[in-house]
Design a protein that fits this description.
The chain has three helices and 30 strands. The protein is mainly beta and about 500 residues long. The longest helix is centred in the N-terminal third of the chain and has 14 residues.
Length: about 500
Amino acid sequence: MRRVAQLICLLIFSSMVTGCTWWEEEVEVEVAGGSFDFGRDIPITTWYHFPGSPSERWAVDATDSELLVSLNISTELSGNSTPFFTSATYYGTGFDTFEPTLGITSSGAIFFTNYNGLGDGTHIIRSTDKGQTWEDVGPFGQIDEDSGQTPNSNDPYIYVDKFTDRLVKFDMHVLAAMFVEFSDDDGESWSIPYPVEGYYVTQDHQSIASMPPPAGVTAFHPVIYVYCINTGSPAAGAQCSRSLNGGLSWDIQRIGFPVESFPQCSGLHGHVAGGIDGSVYRGNPSCEGPAVYRSLDGGYTWSEHTITTEVGMQDGWHAHEVATAVDDGGNVHATWIGDDLMPWYANSQDQGETWSQPMMVAAPGVNETGFPTIFAGAEGRVVVGYIGESSDYDENTSTGGWSGYMAIMTDSFSERPLITSVALNHPEDPLDITPDCGDVRCGGFGDFIDVEIDDEGRPWIALAHNTAGFQEAIIGTLMEGPSLYGDLAYLDPLPEGGNSTLLLG
């Protein structure tokens, strides 16, 4: 895996250097003693807090020392739980989006889906300057240089295979057929569209992942690709297929759950995630609660693992959506919207066999959420993305409505980890003002959003800005904050973005 190689190189280089490095000095100065005295005001869009639990479903302000003492929560924060000054923003792309997904290659190039509908199809937009500017990289058709290579996509999807740096564009057409296209040069050129097996059942909500071939599986490509789809029937559940030759051909679809678990109680699922150990995971509810389904043979057979029976699933638009991620140590992380309309998180350090206690990870003041998504970096470092509302939009004050959030944990295996939460937009710049946006398909959010971490350790979240009626694709990130890969250090600062960067309208 490319990040493992980078880390080894970094360790070798570090061993040759004596004395303190610049980041050690900066951390020592800014966060000495683990306090929240950073020498500057904490932004109004940043919160430091501890998660809630099934019995106490609220966030605990980590900056309120008296409250922490009364709750018997340690005020000593150090090591992997050291707080970092953190601020966030978003950048407009000038392109529209629907059900936004993104991917980031080792070059730092960011790729985002641009939805164009029937006749033109999904295009991929690219930024090579950390979200400041964007360009359309197709893939374009042979005849019409402006239209997409595949003429329609009801569910646009882009995925970066982290093991080979390959871009995988995955399109679903009118619930009936799917095609994949590949790029191995950051979108400069693309393969032809390859058809995907499985036209005999409804094809919806597709998601794809990669992983090294597990023991006992012979592949003809460095990784195995596994995709899963919703069949349109909760009882029939999800179906999945694998490719052993780099996506050129695919196995026949098989059920994505153990036979003894038929019938299922939900067919939809979150994004599929692959691990360095050859495992692959998909999340959706079992009949008992939020669950993760695991395959150890490249998506051929699956086992079912209910995360908890203490916190149920939202009874609404995201009743199906359990998002999963795998960190560099092979640990599994999951998030879902609970029956209290709040985002919940749990992790497993044994391939999903057992799970931590569920944690409510919403920022203080948030009272309703939707569209859960997750990505993991180094062991125990994770980012949870969602949209949230603290109050309905008020026309008189131009505040309220829905914001994009990231909840960042640098020590998620702690019994009660410190969470640094950020809103990507200012309270006077809501992304949507629909009262029930978190519980319906609203604007450019569609069915889901996406979050990823680049090789520097900076989290990025794919969102839509809906209030102007144009559903502009926007990408949120940290201007400052901790790295989620490598040494626990400060990221290089990025410029402030926000509403002024929007280009549509």
